[in-house]
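Good morning,

Both structures are done.
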Amino acid sequence: MFENLEIFSMANALARHSASRQSVVAENIANADTPGYRARDAASFAASYETGPGQGLTATRPGHVFAGEAEYSAEAKAVYRPGAASPNGNNVSIEQEMFAAAEAAGDHQKALAIYRSALTVLRTSLSGGK
């Protein structure tokens, strides 16, 4: 039932995206001493959500021919992060990774707050404001 409401699907996608970004950051930190390792980061949530469901063409009648909605995955797509490399070719900056981890945690908290607020509004509307 809740997955049909856009606010809940967006909050879910943001939570999944932030978890995926946290995973990419953890991988970067784990490889901080690996020679030649290039730090990665996740594409922004806004960029990945713009291509989500409901953004493409849809058929209004059964006879319409269309390509269908694009597959949407809230999984963060890793992109290589530019940066100065150390002598061993590794460009992981622990400070930058700590900042990215804090951003991902903040995004996850934001997703949970959106979900809770929307659920409160839904409960209030269903109970008639009582």
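Second structure follows.
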Amino acid sequence: MNSPLLHSAFSRRQVLQSTSAGFGYLAFSALSTMAAERESNPLAPKAPHFEGKAKRVIFLCMRGAPSHVDTFDHKPDLSRSTGKAGQRPGSKLLGSKWEFKQHGQSGQWISSLFPNVAKHADDMCIVNSMHTDIPNHPQATVQMHTGNFQFVRPSLGAWTLYGLGTENDSLPGFVTIAPPNGDGGSQNFGSAFLPAIYQGTPIAVSGSGGLRARFANAMAGGAKEPVSNISNPQLSKDLQRVQLDYVKSLNIEKLNRDVHQPEVDGVIESFELAFRMQDEVPKVLDISGESAETLALYGIGAGQTD
């Protein structure tokens, strides 16, 4: 059968011309998408796959805290085996010295160390199945925060900020309070191969005394600031704005030349965020305006919890 479509087929030259143009259109589309992403705020809130209920994530890394077998991980077999030989030569097994009871309708096993926490058993999700094959604390800490201690990977906080963004454009969406220099250091709150804007912002990383003392020192004009490198005492606010605008223009010029440089995008947004933080950080960290009831709830001025 003779079909008119067969007589109107493309020649080889026409096919090559059309497909080459198509590849060009694909490249143009990709570049346009990159440009649109660059112009948008990388920290803007992003719609999750499922509607979330949590507004924020507070992750407490309790280095040196009580053992899991003394707190929320009930191991009756270990208690019955107390005194028996362990895996290492000369070692012996030692069960918990604290009594465990089930609490709430959920029947959560909680030790007698936490009588007040036990009252909220039905509001907690306790995961006892997590484990690591790393016996050393530094490597295990990095693995807990990033998923791998051998290779540099983004931290849990960086992934959270990358995936969900933040609603406040004047404060960092991911902060870490008094992070230690050891046990992985900045790798525990770093962004690795993600843009630098998603890494954690350290608060109160230097100075003597507790966190409250460091904050109070900073609020009173002390030498140490809660957040490093966000202010320049040598320049006024207006001159800093001029300086930032000039540096930003140079960075944008590089972006226009190199088309897509996530690292430069991160630098631009980091500078802008630091400038905005100069006004917001002192307000956020100033607890002088809080009521006595609020301070009492957080244990401020109460000795061990201060």
